[in-house]
């Protein structure tokens, strides 16, 4: 009985050295788990619903040559849709990022 308890204690606390048979057995068990475990164990089962996906906000970074500052909201949406290839994209917010001199470096566009 003492041998079994000592073996369990040693397994949990792992007092075995690298060049022992116990270490080799543990490595084999880990490799068997990695290669034989089903992929379904590691897949995120919660997928967003269509309404959650539509309400998600993404940020896209566009260069200053992509957008003109004088565009209105409709023109901006058409331009962003064309660039992204997403006909359903809706612009939530456009933030210009400028350097110290005031030159526009890029635009951060939040889309839904």
Task: Describe the protein.
With 112 residues, the protein is α+β, with helices and mostly antiparallel strands. The chain has two domains: 2-40, no CATH class; 55-111, no CATH class. It is built from four helices and three strands, in the order αααβαββ. It has helices at residues 2-13, 21-36, 50-55, 73-84, and strands at residues 58-62, 91-98, 104-111. The chain has a three-stranded antiparallel beta sheet with strand order 1-3-2, with helices on one face. Strand 2 (91-98) and strand 3 form a beta hairpin. The longest helix has 16 residues, at 21-36. It is elongated. The termini are far apart. The model has no long low-confidence stretch (mean pLDDT 81).
Helix percentage range: 40-55%
Number of domains: 2
Question: Order of strands across the biggest sheet?
Answer: 1-3-2
Per DSSP E runs of 2 or more residues, the count of β-strands stands at 3
User: Radius of gyration, rounded?
Assistant: 28 Å
What structural class results from the helix and strand content?
alpha+beta
Strand content: 15-25%
Number of helices: 4
